[in-house]
Amino acid sequence: MELEFRNLSCGYGQRRVVDSISLRLKVGEVVGLLGANGCGKTTLIKTILGLLPVQGGEILLDGKNIKNWTSAQIARVIGYIPQMHTPPFPFEVLDVVLMGRTAHIKPFSSPSPQDVKIAERALDMLNISYLRDRVYTEISGGERQLVLIARALAQEPRILIMDEPTASLDFGNQIKVLSHVKQLAGMNIAVLMSCHFPEHAFIYSNRAVLLNEGKILHSGTPGETITAERLKTLYGIDVDIVTVKNRMNQELRVCIPSRNFTLQPMQSMERRNEYAFA
Amino acid sequence: METIIKEKIAEVKSQRDAGWKILILLSTLILIFILSFALGRYPVPPGQLLEVLASRVFPLEAHWNATVETVIFQVRLPRIFAAILVGAALSTAGAAYQGMFKNPLVSPDILGASAGAGFGAALAIYFSFSMLGIQLMAFVGGLLAVGLTYGISLRIRHDPMLALVLSGIMIGSLFSAAISCIKYIADPYDKLPAITFWLMGSLASITSRDVYMVLTPILFGCILLYLLRWRLNVLAMGEEEARVLGINTGVMKTIVIICCTLMTAAAVSISGMIGWVGLVIPHLARMIVGPNYRVLLPASILLGGAYLLLVDDLARLLASMEIPLGILTALIGVPFFLYLLLNSKWGWK
Predict the structure, then answer these.
(1) CATH architecture of B2-342
(2) Global pTM?
(3) Which of B245, B248, B286 should one mutate to test binding to chain A, selecting the residue with the greatest count of A CBs within 10 A?
(4) Who's near B250: CB < 8 A, 6+ residues apart?
(5) Is the dihedral of CA B121, B124, B128, B130 positive or negative?
(6) What is the pLDDT of residues B8-49, one digit of tens each?
């Protein structure tokens, strides 16, 4: 399975946010999408999912344009993991995961025992079977995010799209959630993940795509794509990228902001005026 | 192996629990049903009730007063069925509206559906339409009101939950004003009392024809919503998510709005405006059986029916004169909902 954008443009109403980008995504790949707030990451994701209309170009699945597909057709191929959220109703975890089966269930039916088995397998794969009968609104944020991944797995998609899956998670939960992302790629799924931190792209993706003001700045392996210079263009700050070793003797790249962090006292108004008249 | 067995037991247990709860709710409804005959100015004891009912099927010798039959079949039975139907319709509509709008604070009255249906029905009474005409007008009015409420809420770019409630209140009071307008120009000796008493909510003058008239739309709504139970669950997670999970939300929302408004309009057309049932009962049902529509819908139907039947019994018994239903449901519903709000771990987060 292969997802391809050909000169894809998207946005809200008349406004264009993403302008004519082309990209290919293959099964087994994790692609990290990096960019500043408002660069068009979420717009692009919403358009792929069919939540926003395509403004120009095309989205192809195995060479077929998905323009006229129904939401059920799309959902059978493309899964989505949203940012952490709290729904207003206290559904049980198993029910939430079973919702991933919706596209495979007939309109007037409920999930079958077969669907329950698939949902349980998804929970098992993420080692969260113990959450099965708990109430979704009462478990922790990290657990909720894992449940949403399980839901996407129960959907049995070939392509998985994540919109900053670790946003609003604490440090430990970020790593726990992301550790499963690579596992997904091993299951013959193509993953497109927008991320906040360049480090996440270094560790968890095979390919990084830098999105700047609605255009692709660069795309390639994370190592050669994510450079200090390009991060400066993307985020407008100076960054040093350094390689460090962790306790397992693995080399990791981390980004540290290059800025003078010593506290500089603010100049008072009078002093500034004095300078102005000097 | 052991864990598998444990899981199986847990699964069977949770399904059986839900089954038990529904069974208990059903028995409660039947109990109140029998009790409703035994209460009132002409009490019919359960034994006699059974005999009279059985005589309709089996050739039994009538050793009872003819008045008993009149009371049972002409007075009590239509009224009891009407109370159950109206309660079930309003609660089911409330439960479905809440899931569809992903908003635990809405109900037929808060969305303006009741006021819209009330306006349609009042207009129909003003023009002396038939029962069918009243129902149709109520449906059109209700649909118009919910459509306006929903349309306006989409244009308010703030907290969507609040926007829906606020626009519902606005549209509701607009239609209430329109009802007042009809009352103002209505004939004070004939039409005005009819509209006024009907609006306060009452089942006192129900006939079996009324019951037959509303049975079809209410059953139709309940069955269709029950068939869509799984999709309602998914819709309760929010529109975007439901679409991404493979639901055609446009079609689904239209079906749910039409079903709920049809049921509300049918209820309003025979009972007048009865508030709070559609908000309070779904919450109570969710407290008992959880948010899954597979059990929430049956629980809302049974609980709503039992609740309104009980309130109607109170309306008959509490005073020498009948108390309008709408007054009683508000008196009971408001404190109960306040309790829910203050203990919001029940029902929603």
Answers:
(1) Orthogonal Bundle (1.10)
(2) 0.89
(3) B245
(4) none
(5) negative
(6) 555 555 666 788 999 999 999 999 999 999 988 888 889 888
